[in-house]
Structure formats: structure tokens, C-alpha cells
Amino acid sequence: MSDRSAILGAIRAATRACEVPASQIASEAATLVAEATVVQPKFGGVSLVERFVSKASSERVTATVSRVDTMAEVPASVADYLNQRDQRMQLAVQPTVKLEQLDWAGFERLDDLADDGGVAVTLAEYGIAETGSVVFRSAADAPVLLTFLPLIHIVVLQASTILAYPEDLWSHLGGADAPQSRALTLVTGTSGTADIEAINVRGAHGPRSMHIVLVTE
After folding, report:
1. Which strands, in side-by-side order, build the sheet including 184-187?
2. Does the model's pTM come out above 0.85?
3. Which of 18, 46, 79, 156 has the lowest CB atom count within 10 Å?
């Protein structure tokens, strides 16, 4: 027996697919999709907001979270965060009405971000409590680059938009026949990689820091 035959024989002997018919695997997969509650974790009585904060600020997701009561308090919270990090009061703000109508006096507003740098403030459409993710859809007032290009990504999230599970998101997007944005992005914390020598590096493919300003109202 050749080495190749020996290796392939070992793989065939070890694989479950040899023992389980493909039709059974397909049936089991369909059951999991149809009954999402079978695999969805329970939150142990914790509220959606507390679950979201716990996951978003966990060691794996690595975002930070501050809380304010109203949208009007967002600029002050952003200023506090930048001061704590000795950052300049210079940022790009997503051109959406809810952010544009806030008082950004004291900040230098930028139209564009420098490559691989800068601070952007964006408004998440939804949050996902299970994973600590935030959801963005591209639009004329929601340019995609503000989500991926900045070194520091500051996300404004209204607590009322936090959903329990990723599966809950789809019904809020209007269904399969509704017009959709060109890009739908679920962002879970900062960009990271350990591809080189298993050393964890943040900011390799996107923002190095993510801060979420959670608005109670």
C-alpha cells in the first residue's frame, strides 16, 4: 500500500460520514435551522442590555462600553473617552440625522478619514445580545468605510434596538422580498488576528479600538 492510500484510508476510517447517511445529516441540519431555540443559549435571567454589555466588553470581543441616558449626552461621552486616551478631538461623524443633530462643538469634524487612522462615530442599527455584535447597513447616510477604516471606532447604540439572537435580526430587515442595502455588516468587537506566530494583534484588518456608547432612551 502506498503512503497516499494509507493516509486516505485512515481518513475514510475516521470520518463519521462513512457511518451516517448524507440524508440523515441533512435532516439533522434542517432540524437545527428550523428550531433555532434548540441551540440558542439562555441568558439566565439577565436582561438583553446586560447580556449585550457583558459580551461586548468580554476578553474575546474587547470593546469598551459607556452608558448615557439620552442622545444629547453622546458628544460629552465621546469627549470623555478620547480624553482618557489622550486623543485629539478630531473625528468623522456618520452623516445620519440622529448624529448630525447633536452638538459636536469642541470637536474638529472631518469629511474623510486618513488611511489606517483616525476616529469615526457611527450609529448602529441594532445590537445582538448573544454575541455583543452591532449591525450596520450601507446607505447614502451610512458609508461603509466609517465602519472599517478608522483606528478608533465609536459606536452609538440605542438600548431599545438590542435584539436577543442573530436569528431575530432577519425579520427586522423586511424579509427576502424587501429591498436590501448593498452591504449588511455585523461587527463583533475589534479587528484581530493571530496568524503570525500566534501573537494576538489588534487592528490588523480594521479598527484597533471599539467603544460603544449605549443610550438608554
Report:
1. 162-163, 126-128, 133-137, 184-187
2. no
3. 18
